[in-house]
Amino acid sequence: MALGRDIRASVFDRVQSFSAREVGQFGAPSLITRSTNDVQQVQMLVLMTFTLMVSAPIMCVGGIIMALNQDVPLSTLLVAIVPVLGVVIGLIVSRLRPLFRSMQVRIDNINRILREQITGLRVIRAFVKDGYERERFGEANADLTQNAIRVGKLLALMFPLVMMVVNVSSVAVLWFGSYRINSGAMQIGALTAFLSYLMQILMSVMMATFMFMMIPRAEVCAERIEEVLDTETTVVPPLVPVRELKRTGYLELRGAEFRYPGAESAVLRDINIDARPGETTAIIGSTGSGKTTLLTLIPRLSDATDGTVLVDGVNVRDLDPALLSRVVGLVPQKPYLFSGTVASNLRYGNPDATDEELWAALETAQARDFVEKLPEGLDAPIAQGGTNVSGGQRQRLAIARVLVRRPEIYLFDDSFSALDYATDARLRAALAHETADSTVVIVAQRVSTIRDADRIIVLDEGSVVGTGTHHELMDTNETYREIVLSQLTEAEAA
Ligand SMILES: Nc1ncnc2c1ncn2[C@@H]1O[C@H](COP(=O)(O)OP(=O)(O)OP(=O)(O)O)[C@@H](O)[C@H]1O
Ligand SMILES: [Mg+2]
User: Up-side HSE of residue 376: CA atoms within 13 Å toward CB?
Assistant: First the structure.
């Protein structure tokens, strides 16, 4: 049990260190199977090793010595019987190996499909895909069942076969023993004793082979666990971390490039950005232009594949990860809340925050009203993922969560998209007040959200195609003009 606990802990620690790249490589469902079912299989083998592997050889050797003690000539029968039993069981085990191998993959599959279907339940209903999804799950389920049945059949075959060997050998012992008793070379009592020693020997051989049967499955599982443990995260923590910063929040990107693994071309190319404290830097660009990817480089959710990201003049790769996450506060595009309460979520980044601080953050995030309306207020329950609040409420709680933490650099990834125009405007006004000395980076699709920013960066297909204020860009930048005029009239834009 302790071994299982320790393996699970190591797998968990390792997975926690993974960046999005490694998680994507294994897939979340497989990581879950690996840290539960696979660990269990290995644990089972170790348990069996300690119980059977120790007693089986002792019983076998003891049995042989005692059998020899009773009658040496009759014991030569063992030379024939034991290998026959070994071969019979060996044949079955060798056929079990490949079946066990595919067993774990099929469990992965079930996990993957089930997870996807539970997460995508609303989409499935909306597109009336219940039948199709049921079929898909049915197939994976049948696949696993068939595999398990094949394993079961082989295992069922094993017992009668072993019993046959055992019984045939008892007959042989009685047969040859009777001759020896007839000739007066052996006592009847000795024959009876010999028979029970034979049973001991055969049972121990059977137990040992039973163990060998478990080895293939545990072996596959151990390999899968090892794969996780041997995977190094691509976001390596620094050897000699910088633990002190001036903490002004000056953010620079110098020639940053990012390439998703296996992708032909870079998603971001030669990005140069300066975001200064006390200023709001906005990033605008069409969907898929790389805005989210750019923001993930700053808190090191991924590392830039080329170029550098600097915070207060220090490369983020050299920064102590704990310090980096204190300095940078990201509100992701798809905010995630944890199961618990409103308060536990808000205190996620700052456990010591007082209730007043929480309310102040909610006020700024324009979430005070709706939290006040909840009967439990700050103690209102939040479901896993934050699925029991609306999309806009979730966004506002995620914004409040970052505000409670008070980082030097705020990164908002399209965090105002689910808000109506009036709330959006109120939130930004309150935010401007709250973050007056901080560095704020806002990613947005809506021109109205960003037009007052101190600096607007226009991103197009992974490159910066323009930098300036709204008015400068309107005059000089064609891409920006196009985006603006697709949302506002010429008069509104001016
Ligand atoms: N995990 C991934 N693996 C491979 N390619 C990816 C991955 N995530 C994003 N991409 C690619 O990177 C590009 C930029 O994606 P990104 O999410 O940064 O866009 P975005 O500007 O934030 O878009 P949006 O405005 O829709 O949020 C996309 O063209 C997409 O194809
Ligand atoms: Mg995005």
Answer: 9
Do 77 and 169 meet the contact criterion of CB atoms below 8 Å apart? yes
Which one of the ligands is nearest to 461 CA?
1
- Paired with 253 in beta bridges are 273, 309
CATH number of 251-493: 3.40.50.300
- Is residue 95 within a helix (H) or strand (E), and if so which, with residue range? helix 72-119
Which residues make Cβ contacts (< 8 Å) with residue 444, sequence separation at least 6?
282, 283, 284, 412, 414, 416, 417, 450
Residue 379 Cα to ligand 1 middle (Å): 36
The CA distance from 377 to 100, in Å, is 52
Give the predicted TM-score (pTM) of the model: 0.79
CA 222 to each of CA 39, 227, 475: distance values in angstroms, whole numbers, following the listed order: 8, 9, 63
Nearest CA to ligand 1 atom 7: 260
Nearest CA to ligand 1 atom 24: 287
Question: What is the 291 CA–ligand 1 centroid distance (Å)?
Answer: 8
* Spatial contact of 332 and 348, defined as CB atoms under 8 Å apart: no
Helices assigned H by DSSP within 415-477 = 421-434, 447-450, 470-476
**Cα–Cα distance for residue pair 261/23, rounded to 1 Å:** 12
Please indicate whether the domains covering 2-230 and 251-493 agree at the CATH topology level.
no
Q: For the chain, what are the domain ranges?
A: 2-230, 251-493
CA of 284 to the centre of ligand 1 (A): 14
pLDDT in tens, 240-263: 888 888 878 899 999 999 998 888
For ligand 1, pick from 265, 267, 460 the residue to mutate: most ligand atoms within 8 Å of CB: 267
Q: Token pair of 359, please? A: 């309310």
pLDDT tier at 104, thresholds 50, 70, 90: confident
The distance of Cα 188 from the centroid of its chain, to the nearest Å, equals: 66
CATH number of 2-230: 1.20.1560.10
CA nearest 250: which of 270, 269, 283, 273? Answer: 273
| Residue 140, number of CB atoms within 10 A of its CB | 19
pLDDT tens-digit readout, 151-171: 889 888 887 888 898 899 999
Which H/E stretch holds residue 329?
A: strand 328-331
Q: Which pLDDT score, from 0 to 100, does residue 185 have?
A: 87
Burial category of 240 from C-beta neighbours within 10 Å (exposed 0-12, middle 13-18, buried 19 and up): exposed
pLDDT band for position 295 (50/70/90)?
Answer: very high
User: Under 8 Å CB-to-CB from 310, ≥6 apart: which residues?
Assistant: 250, 251, 252, 253, 254, 316
3-class DSSP assignment, residue 468: strand
Q: Ligand 2 centroid to 427 CA: how many Å?
A: 20
